[in-house]
Amino acid sequence: KGGGEKKRHRVMMMLETRKKTYSRRSVIAAKPTTTAARTEDDDDVNVVSETMRKRRGRRTHEEEDYALPLPSGKKHKKREEEEKTKKETKGKKRVVLALFLLYSSVGMILVISYLRLLIVPDAVRTKAMEHAEFLFPSWMGVNETFLNLLPALNPDVLNSDSYYNATEHLIAARQVSDMLNAKPKHPVVIVPGFVNTGLELWKSKPCIAKRTQFRQRMWGTPAMAKAFFYNRTCWLEHMGLDARTGEDPDGIVLRPVEGIDSVDWFMPGYFVWGRMIEALGEIGYTGSNIHAHSYDWRLSPEQLEKRDGYFTKLKKQIEGMRETNPGEEKIALLAHSYGDTLSRYFLEWVESPKGGKGGANWVSDNIATYVNIAGPTLGMPKSVSALLSGEMRDTAVLNELEMTLGPMINTFVEKLIGSLEEITLVFRSWSSLWSMLPIGGDEVWGGSEIAASSSTTSDPEEVIDETPLSADVADANFLTIREFKNQREKKKWKKQQKEASATLTGLSMDNSLHFLHDLAKQTTPANAETSFKKRTKDKWYGHPLRSKLPNAPKMKIFCLYGVGKSTERSYRYTKDGFGEHLGGGGSDEGNVRRHHHRTASTSLTANASVVAKQYKLDVESDPSQLEWQKGTLSVDGDGSIPLVSLGYACASPWRAKSQNPSSIPIKIREYAHLPKTLMEGGFQGISEGEHVNIMGNVDMIRDVLKIVTGHGDAVEERISSDLPAIVRKVDENRLKSTKRGGGRRLHRNKAGF
């Protein structure tokens, strides 16, 4: 009463203010305004109390000028989801960009390689010289002198030792042909190495079937990358074998590609047997007298014969080639890497009454020469690390990347290929890796006089016995495992606190293999148990220290391999987490992480509750006084196989009468690893001794051409490494074992090793 008119006026003003506010917001929602475009009504907007704005969930006036009000309810959730999707898309774009840059760099390297290999015909070169002023702007300074500096336009540069060209192996072939009047004599049978044969898809699961075609390459060629990037986990499942049986998983069938095409080039720009086959073609060989006996390199020799009849087919192939060859010349058998393991198995199997039943003289009647190129005659230590933790860093695809990326490779591999948990299970499913475990035990690999022990130390630098390797034979442990009670103790140890404790366990070679078998049989019982029985019996076809060479006095054996490249020999491991089973430790973050990355395939493991990768390379405790890198100790070799495995069998037991009753002549020829810069051919050069790239070594190609054309006598033995000292050391160890009743009698060979 008395103040009604004023009250009514205030209410009308408030309603008018609200009307202007809502009208203003609708304009803002349609199009944000700038400060310059504001009207005088902006001042009225401030009349609405800040309390009312907060109660309604509205933004302040300054925020409304530049952004939309946050919606509520379903609209708000939708907006959050859209923003989240944008962030994920942005992250994926960054990953794609990083991969694009990486592959672009690799592509540029390959392009440079191809341009560097290009030979321009003389006619084209002449035209280029005549019209250089029209082809190139004057400001580029291009003249005949400049063009002569380009190897692709100047054939004279081919004679220079400083320049690499893809025709070097062809020039070497012409030189052999001219000097020795060499022509094709022995038909050639090629047994390729580990991961060198293409694998194609015959049957697949739905997870990858939509993006693949029948008989598409799952290993080798760019088609492999297509299948891999479409579904990494599914690709790994297809590459693996069944953990319980060691055979094809249900619904998946992979088989080797047949013929020369399966072994010449792994993918564009990366040769395997390609250079060798081209050189053979240069001196007159054709597809009628060259045969590549490809195989599924995931399988052991026993499984290859059982599933594919591999050795039965090889026997018939050799017999057929000899019968159809003019003059019925015997065969030259060429093997690389794991192909040596298969070839030695075949040479004993084919004459065995329980095997090929070819008779005691089959090898003598059909094989003229056996050429072992970089064969792991005494096994490969890297197979232990591959089966133990999936850390195999020298495959055909990643070997060059490791040298380029260095310490980044472990992270890169896990991001690119998948978690090492998945990779460990895939490796364990391949019985071929179990067949390449080191042979000879402590007598060959050291540790026979040092019992494996366990101790607790508070000093991070204290080890059991890790003296540097002498003559490639370790008087120390093959595996050294460091374990901590918990994460806190490990952190203390890193800070070198004296109260921190770690348990060190040193394992010799024999104990290391027992440890591996016990660990792997939980997830891959078929291969682990078969391998354990085989190793316990210590007798199989082609055993390098037990089997006798064939009764073939006219046959010749050549051992060709590279030296001078750092090669892994011993390992240091640490426990990857502190619980053995998933969920067993409850709070173990490592197990949770590995469980998150575990493959969805049940065929790769027989027990999904068991962690496959329980140990990892101990890269944090490398003593500076020893040549430890990334948890490994390296010695001389070809980058994959240590020298003791490459040369010992050829130098000592195979030259003794006990294992070579017919006195087959054996020659060793070593090739020093002499890498060149990228512009000179460093990607895959002509003078490398590396395990795979030796297949392009011109000196080695020249020697093989002499051998297969019947001029093997012109190839002289050449040993430049410390092999004689290794032979003496191993022979001493084996002699001591013989005196204790644990070995066989040794005979001094003719070479005096």
Structural features:
disordered C terminus, globular, six-stranded parallel sheet, seven-stranded mixed sheet, 30 helices, 753 residues, 18 strands, alpha/beta
Detailed description of the structure:
- There is one protein chain.
- The chain has 753 residues and is of the alpha/beta class.
- 41% of the residues lie in helices and 12% in strands.
- It contains 30 helices and 18 strands.
- The strands form four sheets. Strands 10, 11, 12, 14, 15, 16 and 17 form a seven-stranded mixed beta sheet that branches. Strands 7-1-8-9-13-18 form a six-stranded parallel beta sheet, sandwiched between helices.
- A hairpin with a 2-residue loop joins strand 16 (628-629) and strand 17.
- Helix 11 packs across helix 12 (232-239).
- It is globular.
- The termini are far apart.
- Mean pLDDT is 74; it is low at 31-52, 54-71, 112-125, 132-165, 393-418, 448-472, 578-600 and 743-753.
Beta fraction of the residues? 5-15%
SSE class: alpha/beta
Q: What can be said about the biggest beta sheet?
A: 7 strands, mixed
Instruction: Give the radius of gyration.
Output: 34 Å
Count of discrete alpha- or pi-helical segments spanning 4 or more residues: 30
Low-confidence stretches: 31-52, 54-71, 112-125, 132-165, 393-418, 448-472, 578-600, 743-753
Oligomer: single chain
Q: What is the overall shape?
A: globular
Q: Give the integer mean of the pLDDT values.
A: 74
Tell me the helix content: 40-55%
Gap between N and C termini: 126 Å
The counted number of beta strands is 18
